[in-house]
Write a structure and sequence with these properties.
Helices cover about 35% and strands about 15% of the residues. It is built from five helices and six strands. A hairpin with a 3-residue loop joins strand 5 (about 175) and strand 6 (about 180). Mean pLDDT is about 85; it is low at about 1-10. Belongs to the ubiquitin-conjugating enzyme family.
């Protein structure tokens, strides 16, 4: 019985394909919405988007943010986006690829951005997320940290935080972190 349904689905796909060649893959609602979001992107000059699996796979892409001001000037931070087929009902999964000394990003690349968690709503889009990520680099938030150590330094001694960011970005020793090139 299951095999019969599979044959009927294949026949419908072939019938729907005008040239009779390879059946076209039907896009999910999430893919359609994501296609619209990407077509309407209005990114600042310091942000770029790329599709490592090619433009046919919109569900996984990367965004690089190169802040123009703040503690992270001169850095280039790449984020991977994985989008669920039920997008926009579920927020995309976003990870920071390079290690970064940041109060809102842990060393595994997890990002603490409210719109990726409890404040996500289907009316939000990819553009909103990218601007949120950019804002984390221009105004890091020590009140909602993933990296508590970096948050404490930012809160209590912004000059030391700036120095730690600069040292981490250049591959120098940062107390508690060792000699790790972070970006």
């Amino acid at each position: 019985m299951i095999r019969l349904f599979k044959v009927k689905e294949t026949q419908k796909e072939l019938a729907g394909n005008s040239d009779g060649g390879t059946p076209t893959k039907k896009q999910s609602a999430g893919e359609l919405r994501l296609h619209k979001d990407i077509a309407e992107l209005n990114l600042p000059d310091c942000c770029t988007i790329s599709f490592p699996n090619g433009k046919d796979d919109l569900m996984e892409f990367e965004v690089t943010i190169s802040p123009e001001d703040g503690f992270y000037v001169g850095g280039a931070f790449k984020f991977s986006f994985q989008v669920s087929p039920v997008y926009p009902h579920d927020a995309p999964k976003v990870k920071c690829i390079p290690k970064v000394y940041h109060p809102n990003i842990d060393y595994e690349g997890n990002v603490c951005l409210n719109i990726l968690r409890e404040d996500w709503k289907p009316v939000l889009n990819i553009n909103t997320i990218i601007y949120g990520l950019y804002h984390l680099f221009t105004e890091p938030n020590y009140e909602d940290p993933l990296n508590h150590e970096a948050a404490e330094v930012l809160k209590n001694d912004p000059k030391a935080f700036k120095n730690n960011v600069k040292m981490a970005m250049s591959g120098n020793y940062v107390k508690g972190l060792g000699y790790t090139k972070f970006y």
